[in-house]
Structure formats: structure tokens, C-alpha cells
Amino acid sequence: MKLKYSESHPLKSYVLNEQFLTKTEFIDKYENFQWLDLLKLQLSANENQIHCSPSLNIEDDNGNGVFVSIVGELNEYEFYICYKRPITRKKKKWFGLVEYDYYDKNFCSVIPEQTKQDGLNAFMLFYEKNYEELEEKWG
After folding, report:
1. Cα–Cα distance for residue pair 122/119, rounded to 1 Å
2. Contact present, 25 and 56 (Cβ < 8 Å)
């Protein structure tokens, strides 16, 4: 199975290297991605030049996906894992008196304080379509 892969670089306003990758091809890209070099570039740039944090992204045909970004300082950084998928959640209105189901087709959970290995694990669960464990860990 191949998923849509792309990269986000700090000084680019568009995604790069869009292509379809197998799980094995993706692991190679992930392990060789220049996380710290791009973070260093971001930290040395002027604020108005920065468009995003260095990130890798994979998506399926429905637009659901996992995105991993590196943030922080060179000597103290962390990874964010974002998991985008549709969910139904409870919402309230009328001062909490009325509760109803709300379908959010583009819900994205953002989980900070993750490691590089956590990011790879999230991607692997997505490739394996293990959405239950992905939801449990990063939902």
C-alpha cells in the first residue's frame, strides 16, 4: 500500500516532495529527514520568513493522515504528532442544557511532547490501518 507523502520546510509556503510511498520507502525518508538541520534553519531565520515547523506528512485517499513536526531549541526540542480523521463528538448549546452529536470530518488532535520514535510509531500504525491503537495513543 502506498500513501501520499509530503514534507513541510520552515522557509517554504508550500509542501515539498509530494509522492506516494510504501511503508518501507517512508521509513527510509523518515530516518533520513534533516530534522535538526531544518530546525536550525528555522531558528536562524527572521520571523517573517517562517511558514511552518519542519514536518513530514502522510495522507490516505480520504484526506485522513498523520503529521509530525519538530519544535523547540536545538538543545531542547520535541515532536508534535497530529492525527487528522473524521469523528463524532458531543457538543453543547443553550448554556449546556442541550447536548448533541457533531460530526467533524476534519478533526485533528495535536499531541505535544513526543519523541522522534513516537512519530515513527504513529506513522506505522497509520500505514498498518491500526486506527484503534492510533486513536488510543494519539487521539
Report:
1. 5
2. no
